[in-house]
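Justification of resources, computational component.

The compute hours requested in this renewal are based largely on the per-chain cost of generating structure records like the one below. Each record pairs the submitted sequence with a full structure-token output. That output is archived, and it is also reused by downstream analysis tasks.
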Amino acid sequence: MDKMIARQLIKKTDTTEIMGYELLIQSDKESLYNSSEDSVAANAMTAFLTENSNKIFRDRKTFMTFTPSLLFRNTPKLFDKDMVVIQIEDNVVIHPLATILIGKYREEGYHFAINDFQFTPKYFSMLEYVDYIKVNISGEEDEKQRRAIENVVEMAHGFGKEFIATGVNTKEAFELSKDLHVDYVEGAYISDTAVEKTGKMEYLQGNLYQLILEVTKDEPDMELMEQIISRDAALTYALLKMANSAYFSATHRTASIRQAIMRIGINQLKQWVYLLSFKEEETGTEEIMKTSFMRANFASALVKKVNTLKLSASDAYLMGIFSTLDRMIDAPMEEILNDIPVADEVKQALTTGEGEAGKLYQLVLCYERADWTEIKKLSEELELQTNLMAQIYMECVQEVNEIWENVVSK
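The structure output for this chain reads:
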């Protein structure tokens, strides 16, 4: 199976709160989602999920579509029943054993969502088992279609279910979702706009806490300090800007975190960290930091597999970690990057999206949006195998989640 795997966030319609993610899987013509006889595809997907079960997103609920074959193979049991939401589609609803199958999982504490709900007896028979109803909203619906969706929303709320609008890829679709009072929204437009500008530089409190603990030791661990700073876009930017300032009279500018630490010195670094610790924390910081950290890890891992791309892993990492700076600072990206000596390829990628590095950057962004067409096009241009990318993506998700669990618990 030529798999492509991505996640798409699901947020509350009227706030910035992220409720969960949908795990999206697109495969070749033998896909379990496309084939009527899906046993071979189901076996392959079960093997892949078994191998990566500990890498599936653990920080929030994960929505995933399961076919009859996957359900009969007990594939959902690879996941924590409190963290996975089993999505079912028409191929499950019309299955003769659907009620028995779903009832069994429900008794064991699993939660369900119905994709593309329809006003038919079969779908209504599933209502007692489901928690979420999902319907696609494009924003181009006529009055009759809008009324039909409105009826489903009202029915869902009447039965105590929550409604998720999917395919929200435009502002018009989002505005319609708000007008219809849906509970949650999901789609490319949501992925692109969920991380809003903070208005000022923000540092994740867990990172500061860990950095303070390390910098105050008699013999601070240089490698550990470098790791802590590198996973925080705001800390990285502020450190490099300070290290390259006129105050330190540096002959050569540096984009290396370790060199910046050595140039500043432990005493100055200690004072700097203490000052940062007194800044007020605002909501929304965690999600923007996590986004930049995921992009950085994914880009640096992918670039190692591209022989034709003249971009180091460290530059690819900076490209990802700095990709959200324009949402933290009220200034154009080009102006922001003038203060730090990043590679020209990185600047071009972040400001115009052009160049070979720009292709890699766009590929990372397309994964966030689950834009399968662009992912396939860009991966072919960069000579990247989609199977390899899927595994790398899962490994990066695991790494980010493990580190984040440690950071936010501080």
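Confidence is low (pLDDT under 50) at residues 29-37, 279-283. Strands lie at 4-12, 18-26, 61-65, 84-88, 111-115, 132-136, 162-166, 184-186.
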